[in-house]
């Protein structure tokens, strides 16, 4: 059976909506590269067999093979750092100085009730799936609403989610924490880890927003709980100069060094950003096997520096790519990762490769799954892994002729080439739109909910572009009349 039309954009999704599926794409992205002549058998939500197409068709004569000419079957990408409850205020941060969480995100998120948390998370999940992400790591919301609303959004959209619960027990640089409050936070953390332990799409996690908003004991205990539960502990670290300097004043240690001192680093830890890191701190990451979420777009839009991802790779530090809720487009994220390393490090050292296309594909998929605590579950096309994958139209001018598919995907591919998005073997999005729920109705809801954002006590340093242009227009008119 073939489901391609004349320009090989997929046409009939019905045959992809029930399994088992024996797929014969033009190319399959495996660990050894993008290969021709391969077939993939999917059943019960996982990849059952991957191998030679002719051999698999003979082996399973009762299955109707689905030919996919002009399509690349590749792993879904992993967003190792996201904030799902920030989607309603996305462009409010454009052009703003660093540490926008204080002026924009905390006021916005704390104003969201459970209904708004669900709406925001569902909108963000929709964006992520459209951008080729089948998994996101949510760093936790500051809303007082229950995280169940976020999990529900993941369930409804089909997005795999590592769901963080924030365990902050301090405000700012306060030095005192309440013993009863600490016990209550850790008890909630234990309940959170137990509640989502066996969910098909949601994996629990504990988080501290930044090290200075948790006591040493809380940092240690939250990280230890995650290690015992086989999941990840998350925190933002060494992202902004102000935070590094506050830590030096308060602790006489940099934030990453402080995490190490209190025993919060380790293979269960995922630190976001790590842009301002010293050689000694890179060694700490390596020696403790701590993973990093590398957020290149966040660095370009609001950061103080670019994480030395190539040096991390050379040292064997595990890392994935993250959006930090900036722009949910996996292909553009990989392009930003490669470009950031080229501009920040490669040009000064004469490094023309900057890791090559395959490195960024690997860290967007398999490496991202490893950093997110999902190694062996997602991020690869191989037997036993969850069938989280994309069908990407490669029959386009930008990729014709093809000489180096990994580089082409990093530098040329766009999310509009993604024809299908699957998680757990189920078709979730078809050419950018959901199959099982009304995506446009969600957009209408989000537009109507904008009033909640307007009412939040957000402080922007700069006016919006429309406001600025309006002011300039009035100024020019007045000047002309006066002259």
From TrEMBL:
SUPFAM superfamilies: Composite domain of metallo-dependent hydrolases (SSF51338), Metallo-dependent hydrolases (SSF51556). GO terms for molecular function: hydrolase activity, acting on carbon-nitrogen (but not peptide) bonds. It comes from the Bacteria. InterPro entries: Amidohydro-rel, Metal-dep_hydrolase_composite, Metal_Hydrolase, MTA/SAH_deaminase. Gene3D superfamilies: Metal-dependent hydrolases (3.20.20.140), Urease, subunit C, domain 1 (2.30.40.10). Signal peptide: none annotated. It holds the Pfam family Amidohydro_1. Residues 73-426 form the Amidohydrolase-related domain. Keywords: Hydrolase. Belongs to the metallo-dependent hydrolases superfamily. ATZ/TRZ family. This is Cytosine/adenosine deaminase. It comes from Aidingimonas halophila.
């Amino acid at each position: 059976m073939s489901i391609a039309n004349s320009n090989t954009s997929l046409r009939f999704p019905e045959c992809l909506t029930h399994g088992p599926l024996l797929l014969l794409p033009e190319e399959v992205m495996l660990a050894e590269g993008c290969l021709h002549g391969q077939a993939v058998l999917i059943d019960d939500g996982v990849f059952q067999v991957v191998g030679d197409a002719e051999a698999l068709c003979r082996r399973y004569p009762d299955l109707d093979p689905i030919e996919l000419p002009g399509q690349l079957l590749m792993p879904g990408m992993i967003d190792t750092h996201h904030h799902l409850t920030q989607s309603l205020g996305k462009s409010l941060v454009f052009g703003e100085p660093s540490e926008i969480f204080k002026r924009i995100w905390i006021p916005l998120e704390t104003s969201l009730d459970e209904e708004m948390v669900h709406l925001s998370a569902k909108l963000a999940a929709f964006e992520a799936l459209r951008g080729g992400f089948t998994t996101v790591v949510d760093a936790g919301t500051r809303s007082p609403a229950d995280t169940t609303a976020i999990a529900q959004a993941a369930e409804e959209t089909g997005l795999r989610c590592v769901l963080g619960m924030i365990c902050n027990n301090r405000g700012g640089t306060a030095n005192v924490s309440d013993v009863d409050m600490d016990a209550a936070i850790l008890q909630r953390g234990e309940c959170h880890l137990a509640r989502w332990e066996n969910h098909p799409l949601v994996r629990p996690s504990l988080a501290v927003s930044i090290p200075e908003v948790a006591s040493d004991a809380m940092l240690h205990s939250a990280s230890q709980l995650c290690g015992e539960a086989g999941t990840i502990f998350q925190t933002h670290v060494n992202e902004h100069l102000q935070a590094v300097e506050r830590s030096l004043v308060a602790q006489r240690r940099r934030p990453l060094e402080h995490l190490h001192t209190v025993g919060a680093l380790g293979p269960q830890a995922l630190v976001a950003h790590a842009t301002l890191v010293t050689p000694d701190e890179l060694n700490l990451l390596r020696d403790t096997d701590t993973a990093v979420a590398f957020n290149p777009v966040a660095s370009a839009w609001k950061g103080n520096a670019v994480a030395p991802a190539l040096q991390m790779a050379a040292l064997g530090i595990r890392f994935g790519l993250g959006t930090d809720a900036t722009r949910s487009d996996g292909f553009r994220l990989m392009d930003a990762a490669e470009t950031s390393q080229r501009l920040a490090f490669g040009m000064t050292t004469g490094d023309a490769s900057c890791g090559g296309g395959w490195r960024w594909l690997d860290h967007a998929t398999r490496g991202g799954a490893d950093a997110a605590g999902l190694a062996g579950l997602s991020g690869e096309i191989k037997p036993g892994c969850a069938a989280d994958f994309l069908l990407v139209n490669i029959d386009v001018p930008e990729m014709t002729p093809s000489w180096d598919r990994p580089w082409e995907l990093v530098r040329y591919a766009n999310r509009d080439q993604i024809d299908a998005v699957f998680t757990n073997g189920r078709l979730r999005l078809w050419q950018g739109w959901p199959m099982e729920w009304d995506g446009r109705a969600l957009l209408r809801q989000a537009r109507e909910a904008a009033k909640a954002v307007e009412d939040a006590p957000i402080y922007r340093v700069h006016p919006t572009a429309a406001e600025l242009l309006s002011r300039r227009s009035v100024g020019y008119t007045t000047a002309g009349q006066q002259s």
